[in-house]
Design a protein that fits this description.
Layout lengths: L7 H22 L8 H14 L7 H26 L14 H14 L3 H4 L6 H11 L4 H27 L2 H5 L1 H30 L1
Helix pairs in contact: 1-2, 1-3, 1-6, 2-7, 2-9, 3-6, 3-7, 4-6
């Protein structure tokens, strides 16, 4: 059975737009947000806006609010990384924190430079840690802000609009329940992969 906090439709039904924005903010730059369903949540949001289910707002209002929450989340992550700095890389693993996630984001940042802030938006887990790494690496604030705005708008509006456009197709509208179940399954994949990797590492360390 899917945990309710990983089911985009359940989250939207219960918390509405406010819940969507809170999750987007947390997943965009808070250490505890890496496991939240970002992409699937936005895609489902677009589908439900098209269907007029739970969300009865114009698409542009929803997209603008999501983009703003995404940008604000990355800002929080950047400031946190800037303040904590190198000490973050010495922090021991905890239930909701793994050094491997931080290192993966650092490698992504090193490989792509400033563009990583935009590209990371479309990569689960890396999306959460990239702004923190940018802050810890003392990336110039103005440079970060520009990339952050571009990435937040492209991701927040792009994924949501994709769901909205597909939601208007007759086939999708007729089978929306099945499609939502599929989205939930896809949203669980990153979590399942991380759990599998953690289990393999635990066995290898024994």
């Amino acid at each position: 059975m899917t945990p309710s906090f990983l089911d985009p439709q359940h989250l939207i039904a219960v918390f509405g737009l406010a819940g969507i924005l809170a999750i987007v903010f947390a997943e965009s730059g808070l250490l505890i947000g890496f496991f939240l369903p970002g992409d699937s949540l936005l895609f489902t949001t677009g589908l439900l806006v098209a269907a007029g289910t739970y969300l009865h707002l114009p698409l542009w209002v929803v997209c603008a609010a999501i983009a703003a929450a995404a940008i604000a989340g990355d800002q929080a992550g950047y400031l946190f990384g800037r303040r904590v700095g190198p000490a973050l890389f010495r922090r021991p693993d905890a239930r909701l924190f793994r050094q491997q996630h931080l290192q993966r984001a650092q490698e992504f940042f090193t490989r792509h430079g400033g563009r990583s802030i935009v590209l990371a938006r479309f990569v689960p887990i890396v999306r959460t840690f990239a702004p923190i790494v940018a802050g810890a690496a003392a990336m110039p604030y103005r440079t970060f802000l520009v990339y952050n705005i571009i990435g937040g708008v492209l991701w927040g509006c792009g994924v949501t609009t994709a769901g909205y456009l597909l939601g208007q197709l007759p086939f999708v509208a007729a089978h929306i329940e099945v499609i939502l179940v599929g989205i939930v399954a896809l949203s669980l994949l990153p979590v399942a992969v991380e759990l599998l990797r953690a289990r393999r590492r635990a066995v290898a360390d024994q």
